[in-house]
Design a protein that fits this description.
The protein is about 35% helix and about 20% strand. With about 425 residues, it is α/β, with parallel strands linked by helices. Helix 3 (about 115-125) packs across helix 4 and helix 5 (about 160-180) packs antiparallel against helix 6 (about 185-200). The structure holds guanosine-5'-diphosphate, 6-O-phosphoryl inosine monophosphate (IMO) and magnesium ion.
């Protein structure tokens, strides 16, 4: 499936996250030497199931279950260092040995501190009914410090005096701004307690990646969140705070666009969204309940129930065009078994004119008219099917119709959570 995409391949979510990126990253990581995270932080929750055993990756790349894989956490990420060490420990507890020896963190990655989480929660509280519904992991405030050029980077761990000064200054500044009691001494102590474990993992990841590419090594770029949550291209302000779509690879790793040989988009066979914000095809009825129950649609990071809706060909096509997606992995087709009929959004109309983005203002969203196409459902269990031809006729019709509507080939289809529950075409 991937051999014709080239050496270095990106995996990008095309909807609002949780499409099943982690599963595909794990499934194909064996064919790559290096797997990189380039944006976001522990707001991500990427689930992998191997022989019934579940792993959830938040910050570590989802390829780390493969013993030869090197994992890179790029400069574009915001890193909760104690949280990342905890993730490493879970892997060693599961018998994977010292996974840290295979992980490289950029000197330039920003450190996410506890005060970022406190500010995140405070901002949400103050926004009231305009809240974003963030993961509460401090992501927005950490990127705000970065953009304001007061962020603390991993390289600052090497100069304790400077580290202390920066923490004190930031805590004083934010305590005043947000009327919060922040604790610089505790923040410093926490970082000093993990410093020796983190130091050997730090490196110039940009140089490392370029050296490895010269040697012919192959790279998988693991997207977190998704195109519709991208800071610029998503449903602003109901987005995350970093460039999580294709552009994030270049800025978040220092890899130029010419080195991205192929892009795989991940799209669920229906839609979900967790948190607030516009969701054109949302179902607040028994169909939505069916999808949530059948698809176990509860957040991998926060446990929140995910909002569910019909497949949205307009939003997905927008993501495919903007991110330059070559092929699609349609996931969770198995979840639709048992639905009498299925709908797909094919057109958005606002004030009598066709539009091609999700409207982001409340006023426009209320006025949005959506055209749907209806398809007959199927009842068969798909979880043991491994070839396209064996799918029920109505499932095949649905997949082929989606392919036509989004104008992108669907080359892989997910039919279960397990690593190998995939149909390749
Ligand atoms: P990610 O954030 O994009 O990696 O996705 P999540 O891990 O947050 O959510 C996807 C959920 O669906 C996880 O629980 C996966 O184990 C599960 N999953 C992935 N692909 C499939 C599939 O094809 N069928 C079913 N039934 N579950 C899947
Ligand atoms: P993965 O990688 C789904 C959503 C949050 C919220 C908005 C902003 O698992 O697909 P943030 O904490 O980033 O400031 O929250 O973005 N969000 C996600 N939704 N999957 C994710 O990651 C998400 N990461 C952030 O729910 O609406
Ligand atoms: Mg997720």
């Amino acid at each position: 499936m991937l051999s014709d995409l080239g050496h270095n391949v990106a995996i990008i979510g095309t909807q609002w996250g949780d499409e099943g990126k982690g599963k595909l990253v794990d499934s194909v990581s064996g064919s790559f030497d290096i797997v990189c995270r380039f944006s976001g932080g522990a707001n991500a929750g990427h689930t992998i199931v191997v022989d019934g055993k579940k792993f959830v990756f938040h910050l570590l790349p989802s390829g780390m279950l493969h013993e030869e894989t090197v994992g890179v956490i790029g400069n574009g990420t915001v890193v909760d260092l104690p949280g990342m060490l905890e993730e490493l420990k879970q892997l060693s507890d599961a018998g994977l040995g010292n996974v840290g020896e295979r992980v490289k963190i950029s000197f330039r990655a920003h450190i996410l501190l506890d005060y970022h989480k406190k500010i995140d929660q405070e901002l949400e509280k103050r926004k009231g009914d305009r809240k974003i519904g963030t993961t509460g992991r401090g992501i927005g405030p950490a990127y705000a410090d970065k953009t304001a050029r007061i962020g603390i980077r991993c390289e600052d761990l090497l100069d304790i005096e400077l580290l202390e000064e920066k923490i004190k200054q930031n805590c004083a500044f934010h305590s005043k701004n947000y009327d919060l009691e922040l604790q610089p001494a505790e923040e410093l102590e926490k970082l000093l307690s993990v410093r020796e474990q983190i130091k050997p993992l730090l490196c110039d990841t940009r140089k490392f990646l370029h050296d490895e590419m010269k040697k012919g090594k192959t790279i998988l770029f693991e997207g977190a969140q998704a195109h519709q949550l991208d800071l610029d291209h998503g449903t602003y302000p109901f987005v995350t705070s970093s460039p999580v779509s294709i552009g994030g690879i270049c800025t978040g790793l220092g890899v130029p666009p010419q080195k991205i040989d192929g892009v795989i988009g991940i799209a669920k066979a229906y839609c979900t969204r967790v948190g607030e914000g516009p969701f054109p095809t949302e179902l607040e009825d028994e169909n939505g309940e069916f999808l949530r129950k059948n698809g176990f649609e509860f957040g991998a990071t926060t446990g929140r129930p995910r909002r569910c809706g019909w497949f949205d060909a307009v939003a997905t096509k927008n993501s495919i065009e903007t991110a330059g997606i070559d092929i699609i992995n349609l996931t969770k087709l198995d979840v639709l078994s048992g639905m009498k009929e299925l709908k797909v959004a094919t057109k958005y109309i606002l004030d009598g004119k066709e539009i091609f983005n999700v409207p982001t203002t409340k006023k426009n969203f209320k006025k949005l008219e959506i055209e749907y196409k209806t398809f007959p459902g199927w009842t068969e269990d798909l979880s043991n099917i491994r070839s396209f031809d064996e799918l029920p006729e109505n499932a095949k019709t649905y997949v082929l119709a989606l392919e036509e509507m989004i104008e992108c080939p669907i080359r892989a289809i997910g039919v279960g959570a397990d690593r190998d529950a995939l149909i390749f075409r």
